[in-house]
Amino acid sequence: MSAEELKDAEDAELIIAVLADNLKAFDELVLRYQRAMLSVAQQIVRNPTDAEDIVQDAFLLAFEALPQLENLNRFGSWLYSITRNRALRFMKRASKFQLHEDIEAELQVEADPATSDPAKILVQQSTHEAIRDAINSLPPEFQEVIKLYYWVDMPQKRIAEFLSLPLTTVKWRLHKAKELLKSLLEKRGYGEIL
């Protein structure tokens, strides 16, 4: 398969190629799912470095167990399960179920070099912090879909496959999450940013 064919291939086609010793096909699967898996792991462990280690471990486990995958069309949800279980196992082992926010890397505010107006930068940082806090106060099932959709840029169909949910459920959760965010931000005095 050429590089272009790999990008356009369905997950099942890539898995068959991997099983036929085409490692570039597995690289394409990694590219497709890495950011989503990092989001899932980081939501559980709250530490970007630990999340990266978990994702790397999950990919290694998936690669080794790929011949045992029965339904090739469920690869995304299978990866999600592996990642989530590895992250939960990590937390149990480390016994750190503490809640602190580590989504800063996702919403890092970069000042525009053209404008060095401290007031604008402060307002921008305050707005990003309000959005991050509002997202983190959503119920987990809404946090998950909104982060995958907006921060990981994952299409709704792939989110549905990744989370083993019907597409309609993903669409509903995104819609509901937006409504909840709007309400939270308005209550906190940030209604003008929506």
Describe the structure.
- This protein is an all-alpha fold and 194 residues long.
- It is 70% helix and 0% strand.
- The protein contains nine helices and no strands.
- Helix 3 packs across helix 4 and helix 5 packs across helix 8.
- About 11% of the residues have low confidence.
Mean pLDDT: 79
Percent in helix: over 70%
User: Which overall shape is indicated by the principal axes computed on the Cα atoms?
Assistant: elongated
Q: Structural class given helices, strands, pairing?
A: mainly alpha
Secondary-structure blueprint of this entry?
Elements: H1 3-8, H2 11-19, H3 23-45, H4 48-65, H5 75-94, H6 118-136, H7 140-151, H8 156-163, H9 167-187
Keywords summarizing the entry:
single chain, elongated, mainly alpha, 194 residues, 9 helices
Quick summary:
With 194 residues, the protein is an all-alpha fold. The chain has helices spanning 3-8, 11-19, 23-45, 48-65, 75-94, 118-136, 140-151, 156-163, 167-187.
